[in-house]
Amino acid sequence: MNLPFVYIIVLNWNGKNILSDCLNSLMSVKYDNYKVLLVDNGSSDGSVDYVKNEYPEVELLVLEKNYGYAGGNNLGFDYAKGKKAKFVIFLNNDTIVDENFVEPLLVPFNDPNVGQTVPKIFYADEKEKIWYAGGRVNLWTGNIFHEGIREYNNGRFDQSKITDYATGCCFCVKMNDFEKLNGFDETFSMYAEDTDVSLRIQKLGKKVMFSPESIIWHKVSSSIGGELSFKKIIRKYRGYLKLYQLHATPFQWITTVICSPFLLLTNIIKYFRLRFFDS
Q1: Is residue 1 a part of any domain in this protein?
Q2: How many domains does the chain have?
Q3: Could you report the per-residue pLDDT of 133-168, keeping only the tens digit for each?
C-alpha cells in the first residue's frame, strides 16, 4: 500500500527553547511517508544552527525576516508543493504530537467532500485537559470559540464530526485544495487567519472534520506570553474584525454590533475569573 506523501510544516520564530519537545515527538511519528519542514521566520536566537546540528533529518527553509504566521506558512507551502506532497499538516512549534497523529488526519479525506481535518488538542501542562475539540463560528453574534476548552477528557468529544473551523495550531489539507485558496490571507495579523481558511474551504463546498483519534498537546500561546496575555486578546479581536469584514453580511454586522457589548462583558468576566480565581 502506497501511503500518501505528507509534509509537516513547523513555523518557528525565536523558539529554540521549545523546539526540542516538538521535533523529538515528530521524529517518533509512526507514518512511513512524511517529511518535516521547519520554516524559520528570521529568528535571532540560534534556532537555525540548533536544528541543523541536532536534527539533520529536518528540512529547513530559512527566511531573512519574520513574515508572520500567514506569510511564513505560505512560503513553507510553496516549498512543499515543489516536493510533490499530497497533503500538508501545518503545526505550531509549541506542540507535542502523539506518535500516531498523522493517519487519523488523512482517513477522512477518503470522502471527497472533506477539505480539512483537525486533531483533538490538549494543554501540554495538563495532559487530560482539552484545549480544542472543535470550533464554532457565529457571525450573527460575533462569537468564535473552541468547543471543550478547559474540560477534562471524559469521552464527550471522542466522535468524529463536522466542525465550523480548524485551529491554526494544527490542521491538515490537501495540497491542491489549499492551492485553490491561494493559501493563508496575509492581511491578517496572527489571529483569525485559520478561521478564514476554514470558511473559505466551506465556500468551496467542502467540510471541515474534527478527528479526535489524532492527538497533540499545546503549550498555549507561548510566543506572546500565554493564553491569558493582554497582547493576545488585542490581536485576536483585531483578527476577528478583519474576519467579519470578509465574511459577514450587512445584516450580520448589525446583529454583531448589537451583541458585541454583551460578548465583550462576558469575555472580560471570563478573563478575570480565569486569571485570578481558577489559576
Answers
A1: no
A2: 1
A3: 999 998 887 788 899 999 999 999 999 999 999 999
Closest by CA position to 30, among listed 160, 172, 220, 215: 215
List, in order, residues 6 or more apart from 162 with CB less than 8 Å away. 207, 208, 209, 210
143 located within any domain:
yes
pLDDT tens per residue, range 180-221: 999 999 988 767 899 999 999 999 999 999 999 999 999 985
CA Rg value for the chain? 18
At 156, which CATH number? 3.90.550.10
The two beta strands, 143-146 and 135-138, are antiparallel
pLDDT tens sequence across 105-120: 999 999 999 999 999 9
Predicted pLDDT of residue 238: 73
Residue 82 covered by a domain = yes
Question: What gap in Å lies between CA 114 and CA 174, rounded to an integer?
Answer: 9
Q: Which domain holds residue 255?
A: 6-276
Q: Is 192 within a domain?
A: yes
Q: DSSP readout, 61-102?
A: EEESS--HHHHHHHHHHHHHHHTT-SEEEEEETTEEE-TT-S
- Residue 177, sorted as left (phi over 0), alpha (psi -120 to 50) or beta, turns out to be alpha
